[in-house]
Amino acid sequence: MDFDESSTTKIVTREFLAVILAGFGNELLPLTSNHGDDPCPKALLPIANKPMVEYPLAWLEQSGITDVLLICPASHRSAMSNYIQSDISSNYPSLRIDLQTCEESQDMAPGTCTVLRQFSSRIQSDFVLLPCDFVPPPSLSLTQLLNKFRTESTYDGAIATACFYEAGKPDKGTVTEDWGMIPTNLPIVFDERSGTLLHIDSPDDVDNNSNEFELRMSLLSQYPRTKLSASFRDSHVYVCRRSVLDALNAKPHFDSIKEEFIPWLCKPQYQRTRREKYGSILSPVTNNLSQALALKHSTLHLPTPQKQRLRRSAAGSEADDEHLRSVVPSPVEEDDEESVEPSLRVGLVAHRASSGFASRANNLHAYLELNRFFLGQTTWVLPSDPKDRTLIDQKAQISSDSMIGRSTRVEERASIKRSVIGKHCVIGKMAKVVGCVLLDHCVVADGAKLDGCILGTYTKVGAKAELSRCVTQPGYEVGEGETARNEKLETSDWTARDTSESQDSDESEDASEDSSE
Amino acid sequence: MPPKSSSGKDKDITDEDEVLQAVILADSFNKRFKPLTVGKPRCLLPICNATLLDWTFESLALAGVQEIFVICRSYADQVKSAIRDSKWSKPSSGLKIVPIVTAKETFSPGDAMRDIYTHGIITSDFVLVTGDLVSNVRIDEVVRAHKERRRANPNALMTMVVKEGGAAHRTRSRGESGVFVLDPNTSECLHYEPVIGYPPTPLIKIPREILDEHPEVEIRNDLIDCSIDVCSVEVPSLFQDNFDYADIRRDFVYGVLTSDLLMKNIYCYVAKDGYAARVADTRSYDSVSKDILSRWTFPLVPDDNHPGGHAYEHLRGNKYIAKDNSVVLSRTCKVGNNTLIGSHTTIEANATVHASVIGQRCTIGPGAVLRNAYIFDDTHIGAGCVVEGSIVGARVRLGDRCSVPRGCLIADGVVIGEGAKLRKFERVSRKREALKAEQPEDADEEDEEEDSDLEEVEAHQDGAEEILGQGSNALIWPQGAPDDEEEELDERESYSNQRLMRIGDTASDLELSDEGSTTDEDDDASDTESSYSFRSRASSMTSASGGPSLSLNLSNLSDPSAHGASAIHTLSSAAAETEFRSEVAQSLERAFAEGHSVENAAVELKTLRMASNVPLRRVREAVVGAIVDRVPLVPGDPAAQRAEIAAFVRRWGPLIDQIGGVDPVETVEVLQYHCAQAGPRQGLFAQVLAALYQQDLVEEDDIRAWHLSAAARGEGLKPGSALAEGVRKCWAVGAKMIEQFDAESEEEESEEENEEESEDEQPAKPKTAAPAAGKPAARQASGSEEDSSEEESEEEGSEESAPAKQPSAAAATRGESAATSKTPRSSGDDDSEEESGTD
């Protein structure tokens, strides 16, 4: 990380507050289910052996934002604060992270809107809302988004800027259906030229009319040439005015930011009645007043047709209209009326797939895909630390597109290909690991074969077991010689109790390891 | 499809030297120019002193068209003689123009297209335009692009020429326009949605399925539809096949794009440069005139290539004055910019002419003021008259000091008295006597319709004298919305919408969400704080809340007539479905009784389906239902019953997949629902399903998919009803079957094992004696099925597995009949019921 850059931007007064929402990650079950009684926070699931929350944090740091409000469930607090104090403070010294928790349980998680409403008093400036699972592409810096927001909010009164990334539909063959459905993209309507997000086809719209998209004529007359696309996904990164939170508070029944609030937020920009209703909330101060004066004298800027029409209809019948037209409106009157209205636009940064891979790790497929993406970018070499180096047997075969964490032991003639192996793992003799992601503390016994699997922490795979395209819950134990394909392996209640006994001894180890980290 | 061999078509496409044909629809099929079009077809109205038809010919000649068919209806004689007398009929013109007179009953472009088909004049791809076109677009390039596309894709039916403009372009009609959904790469038109100005179209509906194949599409509301279509040969025949198509855009394009049977593609040609516009109404008459005067149509401009053959001199400020020195301009008259003055016209002292077109042999009296006025030939404007934003016909006499304000239309030959003050948007024509006196030969049956119009007009002439002044021979047409508005079927011809197409009308008192860019009336009520459900209701009712604010409460009508075609579909579909059901029943009855081949029966069903336009599911229901109902019942002999079913399904089962689409999951669901209703035949479900499985009509995966679906579980049905009960039972049977599949796959993995072992693998399921008797047998049967589906060998599967199944089924029915003897319920049914109890 570039420390010099961040230290220079520190002087600037706070412009944005970053808000990171870290949830339970129910879409990543069973990886995020409890290991015994310990939670496995989604934010700390590693992607390429780096906790996923580090990706948005690094992105923030590069853009010069220093204040971060990190919101996580109360049960994750200890794990998260531990991580922040140990790792982040050393890796990203410029970030000031305020860890807050909200009361929630895994089964009854409150919606993102509710969480944000709860903390709205802590957000006093414009803010950037991020998920903990977005892995931004290197070609797109957060500064780009911020700059677009800065320009548009001062020039014509935009209220937010969203970021979408292109994600093609995955090939049929590579997807394991038993891992759950891949979420379908919400189709969006946007104006490419001005970068304006106009409509998100929310699930409610689908409920209303499942056969057709319904678009407002007013949208099409304001933006006559728009694009409708189903190839983009919401990155859940939104740069917003503070006033957007007031609007959120005014709509108490909204639950999801992505599926309800942002689609709603797109509408006041072209629907007059909504603009009248929420315009004052969304844009209370005309902070573009200075621009307004300039715009009024500009020959290029036309007063909105709506304004003109209002004046005309106020004139009433046509006879009066005729009369009015001959009278030149006095300039004084115009000064009162012709204040430039804020556009209430929602900007859009659409990131094309051709300019770099981006994804959210919000389902198992994407999680695996992201890990594989980073594998493609690194080349594995033997660890420089002599202690780690000794753990890896000479006769082990490790392909260059693999990644192996610290203190992991790879035994004789084990073969690892295209896989991410976490820290403190053990790969037994003759074991074969292909295209897998192994989280920390996994044990793969001798002769086991793993293909395309994701193993949660502390998973134990018995000797000669064969797993293909499976996902395991933390602490799951695969028996000797067992085989499984395309399954989510979860410890049912009775096995969990079993392991918790054996785990007691493990836990002390854990503690020592944690402190050593 | 036209009766043409494909080889012949190929030749047509590749043959570059062939004659390019064009069809001009010279009739407008509406009354927007009334009363100017009393006694005259619209295509002979002059614009910039040349008739619209001449402009159209000129545009087509520019595009390299060689053969033109002019379809005319009203005043066909006049059109014919106009063509005969024009320069185009000279041999040197290189154009062959054939007028075709259609029947009086031709009321729409669609009717005209059907007429073209019956005439059989079209031999290759052709250009279809309306008779009011002004264009300099290179249509030949469009034709070339169209032919190239057609070579690659024989389903490319049509290429529409559209012009990039902008939502508020002056030649873009505010009253009727369309939203095009295009593929940005191929410019294929994926959807077309007609839009009307008033009552404002609030929503555009785009089918979701277009995103399946085209992940990114463009929605264009900025295109000016020029009504130039390059059509393939089969277009007229499609009109013939679909006799309800009336409008080319709203019915034909919309119909082709939304049809799931036709599978044809329509493309757009987005003209980046060039000019093309229709004179569809008086408003566009105004704007197209202005465009011609400001030379957007170059090389078709008054001083060069004037279609009427006149010669004009182009002066600074886009003034055009006839070249032959016959124009008399007084020393003190003022001629402003954008003005065209025809030959032999006199403009007297102190007269002002600004942004106006004046025909030949006119006199503009001293001190008269013309602003945005269009004066046809041989008209006299009296001294001190003021004419503004109006169209004045030929041979009109305006007395001195008349006032003709914005939007007036004065028909040919009208005389208006001295000092008359017309109201705005006044429409004036001659009285009937005057008309008839002048052109007795025209007053034949031709004008019956018109006569009745005029009669009505004559009935309301109170106070006309005052307005029109002394000595006038004119009638005043009623202003405002006619009382019998409900007669108007087509909303776009309604008074308020027509106002948007009227010359000089700003229509500022109309609420136009279309134009007003941010208006959204019906959102008022729907965006209450309450909830989403309310919003959905409000918007689905389409502007019910918007209605009261409109001056005319037309909004209730808006939905059905805005989508004329779809409305017809929904209306007729209910009737069609009942009719379809009985037809299909008869057809299948015949097929079963007379032993038709499956192919023939399938063809018959397909035809029926297309004729009554019902969804595929109905056909499936009918076929599955017929099979279940016609299986001969063998009461008391389960083995024979099995054999009957197997034989029957073997014979007729394949029909299910030949009706036009293969959807085994739906088949199972349909079977379930049919059996659930079928009373005594309810028990056949398991056996028929097994038979279908055996015939490979449904696969294991399909049964699983069905089993998981909400419909299969009977969700949404009234709990406790007989249907729900039956559905639930059938579902349980399916559950049983899937269990067997599961057991099967496990068995397979650990080689072929005995029943005892496989039962051990499922320790969670305790078994009672009765099902245990039936189960192994059933499993064995499904084991053999598994083999057949496992692609060991096709023939083996179909031949051997059938007999193998029979004993097992016999065992199944035996076991079951021992348990419950009254109704023939299947064993699977029993099993699963008991198991679901234990689970």
Automatic annotation (TrEMBL), chain A:
| Role according to the record | Acts as a component of the translation initiation factor 2B (eIF2B) complex, which catalyzes the exchange of GDP for GTP on the eukaryotic initiation factor 2 (eIF2) complex gamma subunit. Its guanine nucleotide exchange factor activity is repressed when bound to eIF2 complex phosphorylated on the alpha subunit, thereby limiting the amount of methionyl-initiator methionine tRNA available to the ribosome and consequently global translation is repressed.
Q: Which residues form the signal peptide?
A: none
Where is this gene product found? Cytoplasm, Cytosol
What highest taxon heads this organism's lineage?
Answer: Eukaryota
Q: Which organism is it from?
A: Trametes coccinea (strain BRFM310) (Pycnoporus coccineus)
Name the PANTHER family for this protein: TRANSLATION INITIATION FACTOR EIF-2B SUBUNIT GAMMA
Oligomeric form and interacting partners: Component of the translation initiation factor 2B (eIF2B) complex which is a heterodecamer of two sets of five different subunits: alpha, beta, gamma, delta and epsilon. Subunits alpha, beta and delta comprise a regulatory subcomplex and subunits epsilon and gamma comprise a catalytic subcomplex. Within the complex, the hexameric regulatory complex resides at the center, with the two heterodimeric catalytic subcomplexes bound on opposite sides.
Q: Where is the composition biased (Basic and acidic residues)?
A: 482-500
Single GO molecular function: acyltransferase activity
**Domain EIF2B subunit epsilon/gamma LbH span(s) in chain numbering:** 391-480
The principal localisation class reads cytoplasm
Q: Which InterPro entries match?
A: eIF2B_gamma, LbH_EIF2B3/5, NTP_transferase_dom, Nucleotide-diphossugar_trans
Q: Show the segment(s) annotated as Disordered.
A: 298-341, 476-517
Q: Which UniProt keywords apply?
A: Acyltransferase, Cytoplasm, Initiation factor, Protein biosynthesis, Transferase
Q: Which family does it belong to?
A: Belongs to the eIF-2B gamma/epsilon subunits family.
| GO cellular component assignments | cytosol; eukaryotic translation initiation factor 2B complex
Pfam families for this protein: LbH_EIF2B, NTP_transferase
Tell me the Gene Ontology biological-process terms attached to this UniProt entry. Answer: cytoplasmic translational initiation
For this protein's source organism, the top of the classification is: Eukaryota, Fungi, Dikarya, Basidiomycota, Agaricomycotina
Record-annotated Nucleotidyl transferase domain positions: 18-154
Q: What is this protein called?
A: Translation initiation factor eIF2B subunit gamma
- Regions of compositional bias (Acidic residues) in chain numbering: 501-517
TrEMBL record, chain B:
Q: Which GO terms describe its cellular component?
A: cytosol; eukaryotic translation initiation factor 2B complex
Per UniProt, the ranges with Low complexity bias are 528-548, 765-778, 800-821
Please give the Gene Ontology molecular function terms for this protein.
guanyl-nucleotide exchange factor activity; transferase activity; translation initiation factor activity; translation initiation factor binding
Location comes to: Cytoplasm, Cytosol
Say where the protein is mainly found: cytoplasm
Known PROSITE patterns for this protein?
W2
Q: Which InterPro entries match?
A: ARM-type_fold, eIF-2B_epsilon_N, eIF2B_epsilon, LbH_EIF2B3/5, NTP_transferase_dom, Nucleotide-diphossugar_trans, W2_domain, W2_eIF2B_epsilon
Top-rank lineage group of the source organism = Eukaryota
SUPFAM superfamilies in alphabetical order? ARM repeat, Nucleotide-diphospho-sugar transferases
Q: Keyword annotations for this protein?
A: Cytoplasm, Transferase
Decide whether keyword Cytoplasm is in the record.
yes
Q: Ranges for the W2 domain?
A: 574-751
**Which stretches of sequence are listed as region Disordered?**
431-548, 742-839
| Xref: Pfam families | LbH_EIF2B, NTP_transferase, W2
The regions listed as transmembrane in this protein's record are none
User: According to the UniProt entry, which residue ranges have a biased composition of type Acidic residues?
Assistant: 440-456, 482-491, 511-527, 742-761, 784-799, 829-839
Instruction: Describe the subunit structure.
Output: Component of the translation initiation factor 2B (eIF2B) complex which is a heterodecamer of two sets of five different subunits: alpha, beta, gamma, delta and epsilon. Subunits alpha, beta and delta comprise a regulatory subcomplex and subunits epsilon and gamma comprise a catalytic subcomplex. Within the complex, the hexameric regulatory complex resides at the center, with the two heterodimeric catalytic subcomplexes bound on opposite sides.
Q: Which family does it belong to?
A: Belongs to the eIF-2B gamma/epsilon subunits family.
Q: What is this protein called?
A: Translation initiation factor eIF2B subunit epsilon
